[in-house]
Amino acid sequence: MASSSDWFESVAEAQRRAKKRLPSSVFKALHAGAETGGSLSDNVKAFGELGFVPRVATGIGSGREMATSVMGQEISMPVIISPTGVQAVHPEGETAVARAAAGAGTAMGLSSFASRPVEEVIAANPSLFFQVYWLGDRAYMERVLDRARGAGAKGIIVTLDWTFSHRRDWGSPAIPERLDLKTMVSMAPEVLRRPRWLMSYAKAGGPPTLEVPNMASPGEDPPTFFGAYGSWMMTEQPSWEDLAWLRETWGGPVMIKGVVHPDDARHAVDIGADAISVSNHGGNNLDSTPASIRALPGVVDAVGDEIEVLLDGGVRRGGDVVKALALGARAVMVGRAYLWGLAAGGEAGVANVLEIFRAGIQETLLGLGHESIHDLTTDDVLIPDGFELKTPA
Questions:
Q1: Catalytic residue numbers?
Q2: Which of 159, 172, 66 is nearest to 110 (CA)?
Q3: What CA–CA distance (Å, rounded) separates 158 from 131?
Q4: Of residues 111, 118, 102, 186, the one with CA closest to residue 152
Q5: Could you count the other beta carbons within 10 Å of the beta carbon of residue 191?
Q6: Distance (Å, whole) CA 113 – CA 345
């Protein structure tokens, strides 16, 4: 289907439309990476270094098996929604994303820094994993888990790949703590140049609040994004003993997100985690960390089939998904891609992005001569010398 006013053919087109629709500060906040953006760039670049080995005259049928499961949730394709923070790109935010993911038959990760309460989002998509950071003390973490459990979350995602870096060498904007009158006046020139974005919020009742409702107990006033962020910054990093306690306290499926080193993958197995995500936080963590896809083979070799391995970072097309699966991932998590779709067209834009991934996976499987994602192996991918991340044992 050719691109039209309400349909786009690629994630790159969704990105272009998001840039055209969003105020520049909002778009730059989505697009930025830590410091030089080296890890962000390598996340995308590394996929381009991998090649395919196509097959012809295979006689395979028209159907393609893409269904799998992640932490006990059956999904129609190996792509799930990665949790991302306050989604000020569209008034409906995470709720629109949840509906689109449910329509596509896949699961969603919801950030504890989300702009919508978990109870509202899970009503739109019951296949929801609630994402947490290690914040405060164990008593506070228990309250967070109690709320997620009460809402019906199917599992938790514990994000560890974050160093609180605020450094951006290429113009990422400052994010205000509140959209008060002074802030809105300062942002008015760029907002007025994006009247459709402005009108969408005007119709919804006003600008985004930049509050994080899931960081408070039900009935409490939610903190601002930076209020919660500050508390998180003041919390010491968790140990594997802390994470083992978290796993036991939650009592359900747990994913450890942010694994790059094979030893950390082994630790996740040792504490009884159900899944890990090989991730460098979308290039927003420690700059100069290699692309997630470069670290994937070493992690897979370290844990085998003892734990579900997912990949997060740089996925922009169905072929990228297939490359990750061929190197051992069970599924991938996508972030910026669906946010660009949300900015470009709301729920329909997110659904559009997910359909692009689905079609791309189907086409790539056909080119490789496979009827199922479960038939993929490293023989389907050309891996150049020096591609994989080599870490000391």
A1: 281
A2: 159
A3: 6
A4: 118
A5: 18
A6: 22
